[in-house]
Amino acid sequence: MSMPPAQGAYTCPYCRTPSDGGGGTCPHCGAPVDVRLRVTDSGWVEQPAIRDLARIRFGRSTCQISGEYVPVAEMGLHDDDWVYFSHHSLLHTDPRVRLDSMPLKGGWKRMRAGLPLIMMRAQGPGHIAFSADEPGETLAVPLQAGWAIDVVEHRFLVATGNIAYQWQNADIWFTTKTGDDEEWHYPVGRTIDRFAAVGGPGLLLLHAPGNTFIRDLGPGEHMLVQPGSLVYKDMSVRMYLHFEYPRGRYWFSSARYQCKTTWLTLTGPGRIAVQSVYERPELAGSVRRSSGATTQQW
Amino acid sequence: MDRIECQWCKAQNEFGRTNCTTCGAPLDVKDKVSDSGWAEAPRLRDMTEFRFANSICQIEGEIVPVAEVALAQGDSVFFEHHVMLWKEPGVPMSALNTGGGMKRTLGGMPHILSIAHGPGRVAFSRDAAGEVVVLPLHPSMELDVREHAFLAGTHSLTYSFVRIKGLANVLHGGGGMYMDRFVTNQEPGLLLLHGYGNVFQKTLQPGETILVEPGGFLYKDSSVTMNTLKQNVKTGLMGGHSMYLAEMTGPGRVGIQSMYVHHGSE
Q1: Which residue of B has its CA nearest to A120?
Q2: Interface test with A, best of B29, B34, B212, B247 (most A CBs within 10 A)
Q3: Whether pLDDT at A250 is above 90
Q4: Quick one: fold of A10-297?
Q5: How is domain B3-257 classified at the CATH fold level?
Q6: pLDDT tens figures, B43-52
Q7: What is the ipTM of this complex?
């Protein structure tokens, strides 16, 4: 039996974390609490932009988001708190913040996957700020103890010290053949990052180009999305490729392959988030081999 | 009579105005300053107008804003030719030889700046989302600007360029070999910059230091010194890496942009 909600209790629809709802913004993710949920006719929820200068609390520290085109996440770190980040997202720091490197396994694989080899660690006290290199939205994803999400590579901005970081093969790939050459494609990247809160709640900040939309898929519910648009998903969401081709005869057989659509099928239960700016998959070549995939001709 | 002081440029405005007549900053919006003291550059409202000498500048658009200048007779602006979006056919043009010869070639900077003279209209914009930053310069001010970041300067400004000191600063600073320097003489001038993403400014006290990603540097008062600080990072079996940060020491203003190309590690 579930307990009735406490009087005045508010659960943020964007980060799923309860709070008293008294402030203008959610203290865990910075989303406005006094705006109407904006849901498209098909059920996608538009992630509201974090209001300029909104503060988010974590541990004994704060994170303040400023700017609206390429927002800056400025951490006011307490002595006991630390965060880690990829070094290229650092914008400025005051000299009191102690910077060092965080050991990462799999250097050779990370290099091949185009991932940063260095993860930096910043220990309070002091202020340190981060930003990305494309116009878009900063997403604050508070993770409760035991929660984990999978994040597409290069979307990560910064995370608090109690969020464990792992990466693994995305296992979403296909090959195409042009002449004698076989080319490998990784539509969601060669690897995918997994962030899990251990021992207590933590805060994960992502940056997604363009606008971001989220959706909670029911058990067994499917959704087709452009592979390059995925930002993150709950661990429980499965993903595989889906190819669509036009039917019919064409003067050149390659015409069919050039008109193929490469989708990513996401299957619930769980939350998915997509961004409105994404890299389109290459069209050239016929698909020869792939990870698990379905095919449809229309 | 009551006056309102613009928090961005400190100019005095008539009571009741909603935008500063000198820099266009909204006067009815509270200053936005982060906990650590970085002030957001004022978000100029679409179609905001402000004046310099006898001319008018209007900012249009919000994602990649356009600065449209209606030049009066006797006024002029100078700029790098690639930022000119359009101009009226009758606007007289001339060239400003920057000097520097091979230095500018090596620095990837143009040898000639274009000058548009009034009367007539000319408009400027850059190539990525960001903000137009309006910096009125009072007499005897000196401002150093990241190369290629300036949109236009008014005729009362003197343009020169200064070499970034120190080989490490040039190689690892991410800001190129030179900075543009703008100096005012007896009369005030106006400088328009374009910062990628959002722009923030902090005023450093004498001896106060801040570390900035070199790609994020946009401008500084010439009184602010800039040095490159090397940060060694060990990466286990993969060996060591170095990242470089720009150490800015006051007194003076420092401006940064939130979107940048990272040049920092090797």
Answers
A1: B233
A2: B34
A3: no
A4: Double-stranded beta-helix (3.60.160)
A5: Double-stranded beta-helix (3.60.160)
A6: 999 999 999 9
A7: 0.79
